[in-house]
């Protein structure tokens, strides 16, 4: 039976350092502040927002939400985003995605100040993640997987890692973070031939495809480490990962659950980014 890697243990370990850094900022008269920009009220945005608010409060980070109506016009939306860019009290911005269909997300990515872009969506931050330059910000969920593996002392250097999923929020940036740590990375997707065979070769398997319980026991090698990034909510409101937990746990050496796994570390990484941004913006004054 694999060891269950619990998100709360990782978040707790991160908490001590973050509290100290927040205290350091406050001694200099700086109150780190996150602004959340939400358009409409999608349930998964609200779930993340609740978690983020709770985590920021626990760490003494200010958090304010700017809520815009679902049917807002592109020009007004862009104005609001620019206001947050220019607001000196705001150190970091989190824009919930995906945006409603009528809004231009590509335009938004180009407007957000790279120094305030907490979820690594703008081209400058994407480029830095790909270049292995850690003066930028990676998407929080991708970085949460690294925090999870590091906390449980899973070595990455030289390891065969298979990432299932190629999204710009998880699969691709995470692959670059793993590569920086000298893992041998294979990225799988819907057109991968013999997905089970490729997955079975993994020493570390990351499921980030967004398909409930698609990773089954026959796809996991003996004593593999399995990290589940999936957040799939069914009609009854139950949350499922991309991994069929019960059967895969028998096979794996370590496995992260859903909920209470990677998803619950994401808000701690978000907090870390806000602290980093506040420190960097203060040092540059
Ligand atoms: N730019 C952007 N980045 C995101 O990362 C992003 C987003 N937009 N829009 C919304 C979705 C949704 N999302 C969640 C992440 C964690 C939990 C989470 O904390 N889950 C807990 C359970 C939370 C609970 O208690 O309900 C867990 O996995 O254990 C939920 C939802 C991030 N998203």
Report on this model:
By secondary structure, the chain is of the alpha/beta class. The protein folds into two domains: 29-115, Rossmann fold (3-Layer(aba) Sandwich); 140-263, NAD(P)-binding Rossmann-like Domain (Rossmann fold), CATH 3.40.50.720. It is built from ten helices and eleven strands. The protein is globular, with a radius of gyration of 19 Å. The model has no long low-confidence stretch (mean pLDDT 97). 5,10-Methenyltetrahydrofolate (GUE) binds next to helix 2, helix 6 and helix 10. InterPro entries: Aminoacid_DH-like_N_sf, NAD(P)-bd_dom_sf, THF_DH/CycHdrlase, THF_DH/CycHdrlase_cat_dom, THF_DH/CycHdrlase_NAD-bd_dom. Catalyzes the oxidation of 5,10-methylenetetrahydrofolate to 5,10-methenyltetrahydrofolate and then the hydrolysis of 5,10-methenyltetrahydrofolate to 10-formyltetrahydrofolate. Residues 139-281 form the Tetrahydrofolate dehydrogenase/cyclohydrolase NAD(P)-binding domain. It comes from Suipraeoptans intestinalis.
Strand order of the largest sheet: 1-11-8-7-5-6
Our Rg estimate from Cα atoms comes to 19 Å
Characterize the biggest β-sheet. Answer: 6 strands, parallel
Q: Given the C-alpha coordinates, what overall shape results?
A: globular
Which percent range fits the helix content? 40-55%
Proportion of strand residues: 15-25%
Return the average pLDDT rounded to an integer: 97
CATH topology of the largest domain: Rossmann fold
Ligands, ions, cofactors = 5,10-Methenyltetrahydrofolate
CATH superfamily of the largest domain: NAD(P)-binding Rossmann-like Domain
The succession of helices and strands, N to C, reads EHEHEHEHHHEHEHEEEEHEH
Total separate domains: 2
SS class:
alpha/beta
Report the end-to-end length measured between terminal Cα atoms.
52 Å
CATH architectural designation of the largest domain: 3-Layer(aba) Sandwich
Query: Any idea of the CATH class of the largest domain?
Result: Alpha Beta
**E-strand count:** 11
Number of helices: 10
Low-confidence stretches: none
């Amino acid at each position: 039976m694999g060891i269950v890697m619990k998100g709360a243990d990782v978040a707790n370990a991160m908490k001590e350092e973050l509290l100290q850094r927040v205290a350091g900022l406050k001694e200099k008269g700086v109150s780190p502040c996150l602004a959340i920009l939400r358009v409409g009220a999608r349930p998964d945005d609200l779930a993340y927002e609740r978690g983020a608010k709770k985590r920021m409060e626990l760490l003494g980070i200010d958090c304010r939400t700017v809520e815009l109506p679902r049917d807002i016009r592109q020009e007004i939306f862009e104005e609001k985003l620019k206001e947050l860019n220019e607001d000196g009290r705001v150190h970091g911005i989190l824009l919930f995605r995906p945006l409603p269909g009528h809004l231009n997300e590509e335009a938004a990515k180009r407007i957000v100040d790279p120094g305030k872009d907490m979820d690594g969506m703008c081209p400058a931050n994407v480029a830095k993640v790909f270049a292995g330059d850690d003066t930028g910000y990676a998407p929080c969920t991708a970085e949460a997987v690294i925090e999870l593996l590091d906390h449980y002392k899973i070595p990455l250097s030289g390891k065969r890692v298979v990432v299932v999923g190629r999204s710009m929020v998880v699969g691709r940036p995470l692959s670059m973070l793993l590569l920086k740590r000298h893992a041998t990375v294979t990225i799988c997707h819907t057109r991968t031939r013999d997905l089970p065979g490729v997955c079975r070769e993994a020493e570390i398997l990351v499921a980030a495809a967004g398909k409930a319980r698609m990773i089954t026991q026959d796809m996991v090698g003996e004593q593999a480490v399995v990290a589940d990034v999936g957040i799939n909510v069914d009609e009854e409101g139950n949350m499922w990962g991309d991994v069929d937990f019960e059967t895969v746990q028998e096979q794996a050496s370590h496995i992260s659950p859903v909920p209470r796994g990677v998803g619950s570390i994401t808000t701690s990484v978000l907090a870390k980014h806000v602290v980093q941004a506040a420190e960097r913006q203060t040092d540059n004054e």
